[in-house]
Records
---
Amino acid sequence: MRKIDKSDIRSTKYKEWVDGLGDSHPAYSSSHRFITDIKMSLLACQKGLCAYTEELLCDKSLLDEANWQDGEYTKELDNQNLVNGDIEHFDCSLKNTQAYLWDNLFMVNSNINCRVKGTLSVDNILKPDRDSYDPYIYLDFDYETNVFRPKSSLSSEEQERVKEMIQILGINSNAFKRARLIKDLKENIEMGLELNEPDEYITAWSMTKDALE
Amino acid sequence: MVKYILIIFKRHTVKINYLHIYNYKQFLNLELDLTYPKGHKKAGEPLDKICIIGQSGVGKTNLLDIIKNSSIDFSTQPNNSYLPFSEFVGKDTDDKYITTKFITKNNYLAETLFTQDSSKLTVKALGKNSEKETITENEKNYFISAERCKKEDLNNANNFDITIMSESDRRLYEKLENAKIDLMLESNPTSAGSAMLGYLSYGRKQQSIDKEIKKLKEKYTTVSESIENIKQNNFLDKFIVNVNEHSNFWQTLKERIESYDNERLRIKDKLTNKLLNDDSYDKEHFKKDLEKWERVNENILDKIADDLNFILNRFNLELTKIDENQTSYNALIVKDLSNDNILEYDSLSTGTKNLISTYLPLKILKPKESIILIDEPEISFYPNIQRELTDLYMNIGENNQLIIATHSPIIASSFEPWEVVELKFDNNNQIYREKYHKGENHIDNYTVDPRMLTWTGILTDVFDLTQDSNFSYREKKLMEYASLKEEIKAMPDKTSSKAQKKIKEFKKLSQLLGLQN
């Protein structure tokens, strides 16, 4: 799970609107006029990847700045321009009162949003945009078993918290796809083939490379 | 229990190779090319077998029904009056249709078109220099039907006018027809069942009645009248057998086997009594009388023993004779080959009995150049039997097209990728067929092949399961395993008791996680 910098908000229209709301947000609606803007703005910050699993959620061309005009996303999203993800409220308890709070929103794989995480309560220790969050401090990736696990240098109390959050966020979900990619890349190295850096599962691959060296 | 098996016997229709459903049931616009792709040795020919998969609600069973309805009863109705899809539903009330294409065995392409108000059948010849050859509407039925029709078939045409017969012939004819009906009723509650019992004693009696009826008809029917009758029918045969009634069929067969067994025992007792009480009656007489009874009374079990054993052997079972000296099978007694235990048929497992009652009726029918439709063939079968089902049904007759709908990854694994029709919902909740190839439909462009995948691979790549295990539980243990490995690696003395304890724990976890496999 990469660290995400959400300071550059492309959807300026939404930003103006949400800043003006103060603490009183309207109820969340997936058909709200700013939903596409929020989605694409988040994806721009997340480089097109699921905030938790790092699975690629859309074609990178959809992230082009040229698709934005006057703080609004202009490209139509349909079956051809598919985004395989949902807006997720990191802390679900804020969804009722501050449904559109930028800091609480991420784009994630739909399966994680609906089936894995749901409304489980969270611990900010693994909030991907937290200032002091760094995957290399909190996580370790074991390429043989294909799981992220808590870094052994953490205290046992921290390890437990991280372990629980790994499961809540579904960081190891869709793991077979990640396993195949890592296996493929490892094979390329073993066979002396040209190595193209992957578009997704970047942290897992980066930690695998470190372990192989 | 298998949901249903439907077999379509056709003298002329061989295989479906195209289906387009527009605005019917859950299908807004579904077009299916059911031919082998380019690069395949059968490129362009209809698929020999088709496996329909997809989540509940995508219309697998409806698809089977559509194939059945668009291909069968067309022939039984006067032109354009067959409307199997009269309940067309959809957003657009004007534009809805189903069209299918079938390749006939004498290489004609038959296209059906069903709209809300009418149905239509067109036929054209295929093959060399015949793309442009068309057959007139008047000629088509005769041309297709009569080409391979034997003379006796002509006299089986329907709508025979009995008023032209002499009084005595008409009475004889009616008597024979009634006898035929009585025989059918007595034989089995359904006509489908009667047909299945084709080669049994019922079949022979029926044949002799049919022979007499045919003789009578021949006196009054000219060949040209018979041809005219065929012309009025469509070229598709009418013979449909819904083997969904297989339980009836098997039940009937079983009852007959048991009744034969009981009757034989009764006769044997009677003859034994005679042997004991009548000095002039010796063992030779006894043997002769019993053999005579056996010759006259048909032993069904003997006839089906090979087919039955073919299935029983899959469960390490075999039909057995109670007495080694018996020349034939007299009762449904089965031997467990693993321990030689003798079992009554009724004590066999549900799965075994299911396979027998499903497979055997089909096997006895010996379908040839027919379409066999099966919904969920896997029900109640253990994986090892599921693995064999496709082959069993493919080898049940000759040159059939097997079309099944299934939820079983194991069954799907026996299909070539182009033979799998995976139905899915798109973002607008409309149903489409998932493509397993990129670009042109050529075998080299396929990226998924169910035959090459592991069971896990089929579940994730074909059946779209997002996890490859019961992950919420497994994940915890995998993390523990990875941490333990790290901890053991870092231990300087691997022989210390602490290290040994950790290693033992690590190995145990590895076993539980199946990582040693």
Note: Confidence is low (pLDDT under 50) at residues 129-158, 187-200, 226-239 of chain B.
---
Amino acid sequence: MSFDAELDAKGLNCPLPILRAKKAIGALTSGQVLKIVATDPGSVKDFEAFCKQTGNELLSSAEAGGAFEFMIKKS
Amino acid sequence: MAKRLSAEERRATIITVAKRLFAHTGFHGVSIDDIVSEVGVSPAILYRHFESKEELYQAVLQEFSATRESYIEAVVADDIGFEQVLRGMTTVFVSSIINHPDMLKMEMHSQLDDSSASQDFFLNRWKSFTDYIEFSLNELQALGKIKPINAQAAALMYQGMIREVLILKCMQQSDRLKDTPIALLVDEIITLFMKIVEPVR
């Protein structure tokens, strides 16, 4: 899947990955996609909740090699 | 006659009892015999659900992780600054401890236990604060918005203050603080903490 910006949130605990993502999405235009890589297991629920609250679309959420990868499309 | 519990209900009952006992006397202060006699089952039944006391302890920690705090609401609002996020996060964290004081007791015991797994578990919960404070203060300094500050020491200071309030109010019901509601105390402490974060004018 292609994306327009990438955020490395590895090693950070909630809420930092969310705050960084919020900032990164702020810099995108509507329809652009942000890829986020995080290691906090809680980030899976957090990004679901984040997208629900902000109206951005969670395109995918996957785990690979102990890291979690999210694709979020700006609304 | 008491209703026979399903395997799932039995497991949940064992975890509930174990949580209370672990919180009261720590991992080493509780034996499998203590747990089974409190639950009213034989050791064989307990071992059907948990291979060892270690595994049961891990299951208790797992349950705490399931009730893990969500800081999303505290951070999604627009144009929200360092102090507001910190206040929001702290409110969520403090309420969760008020609702689960056993978690704090287990955390205190874990400091003495020689189990790195449980120490890591509780340290990780505080990491949300230390990460947030360190990262944000370093970023604000780099942007020239605040005066130089040792972000790591500030994060540690914050953790120490909040944890002490929780210990005094939720575990020891300290007389010294009995007339001050916990929310007010936490609020005042954050106000004091923010005085060390000096904006550049």
Note: Chain B has two domains: 7-65, 70-194.
---
Amino acid sequence: MTPRSIKIALFMIIATVPFLFVVVPISAFLIMSFWQMDGAQIVREFSVSNYVDFFTNDSYLRTFLNTLWLCSRVTAVGILIGYPIAWFIWKREKRAGSLLLLLFAMPLFMSYIVKIYTMRSILGLNGFLNKILVGVGILDTPSLVFLYNQTAILITMSVVFLPFAILPIYLSLDRIPQSLLHASADLGASSGVTFRHVVIPLSLPGTVAGALFVFILALGDFITPQMVGGPSGFTIGRVIWSQFGLAYNWPFGAAMGAVLFLLALLLIVAAAFAASRQKV
Amino acid sequence: MGVTLKAISKAYGAHKALSEISLDVSDGEFLTILGPSGSGKTTILRIVGGFTQPTAGRVWFGDDDITDVPTHKRPFNTVFQDYALFPHMTVEQNVGYGLKIKGIDRKTVRSKSTETLDIVGLGGFLDRYPAQLSGGQRQRVALARAIVCEPELILLDEPLAALDAEMRRQMQGFLKELQRNISTTFLFVTHDQEEAITMSDRIVVMDNGEIEQIGTPKEIYYSPKTPFVARFFGENNMIKSDFVDGQLRTPFGEIALPASINKSKRPVFAALRPEKLLFGAAKSTISIPSIVKEVIFIGSTTQLRACPLAAPDMVLIVKMASDPNQVLPKKGDQIDLGFNAQDLAIIEVTQ
């Protein structure tokens, strides 16, 4: 065997892993999204009827758009809270910073379900949040507004996905050489001006990555809406799950999943394109 | 207006980076701080620039104590060792940054940046990004960015260290000329003796957080005050000696010194530059019979190592211009080495 054919063989062997575990499943559900249900039977005939159904059905479409709006807000909250936290960690001494970062990354080591249950108990009628608000005197009696609605989903997702915003933002801040901040001050910029002209533009790639993480995770999340969203907390993730788990209309679920998948892919490609235009 | 450092100390925990440094930087001079790495030279620059605070002592600018003035309010600009160009800005934006922040109108910023870039020879690179430039070009952008704001003082932190030898020589000449043209004070930090000697009006030699000597390049080279300075600038023959009855007692005999030299210090090193030690020259006042140990051809110069007959453990270095027609002695030959007493620099031995 020549070295070249060994290389090709090696590549093929290594490539089977992503092929088997990524390409095959995605292709399978993409193909399935073009099939139909006939009673309880899947009909393996190509048709775009699932997509047509989805885009012409008012309630599905509204849920889809509502979900996009919800995810946008989760992303906005994640960045608006995550950026200051990442900045704060970055400004600490190395040791204190690492410790803080570890603290904020800690939720990543915990089970997702545990985190949601914790959030549910915090937001509930006898939860931590109500106790504090009543204790401080902002509320007279414990309120139900924090649980089983869209707001509850917003709060829970924002908290649960916060580390995914903090980490990439922190990494991009950490990559800014100290000398650039010195150079900016040296040229007469106060720390506020330096922040606007140097820190924000140079941490933009990490911020975009963080926003993408949060948005895409929120988009696909169907457990949080189910656990804390109550009847009014319907999201597209829950709809898709119900097509598989309740309605047993797998092709239709697959079609909605495909729409979600393509949207996420589009966002990633757009972000990558924007990043490639930056001369950093 | 000049910058004055008064008894500046800087400690990092238990480590003393600077101990009670006092220094005057006169208006319009090219002052170089020279020292090996860890000597505290960059710390001085950082304190003048306001990037770090001294543990003790004050920094004055003219009649103002600027020790507590933050970096962005000091009328100084810095050329950083890694250039510190903003990667997301074009060359023009980098150079115009300081002016833009001062609220100067866009047209003036543009014309001034362009003008300054022309001075450093980068007129055609306005729209490039730093990543698209070579090391030498980046260095020039950093320089342009520092001079465009017309600061009172320019701090240069080993700006030539990352350039190759040829580029460095070019930039040395360019920097010196630029400094003369814009008549701004340059505070230049380097570890390269040749760079310091060729560019500076005055040199501050530092070691271990202390100033060893301040002087013109010639003073530093020919009249070193400490053994460190004598050794730091190229090779030197360090002859350990004593004063006995007003005479310098060297391992190879006693030498009468000119009356102007203070003969009270002892013991001393008599430092003699290798190029001041002559081989086969008749006009020298003092002659040392020696045995040749080695003859090394270096190119433009030839080096000879020889041991005096009276002190066979000692090695004297002779440096002379290479001459293909000259018949050089061979290893083992006996020769006479000569020098003039006034070429000796007398340095107190400090330990």
Note: Chain A has a mean pLDDT of 90.
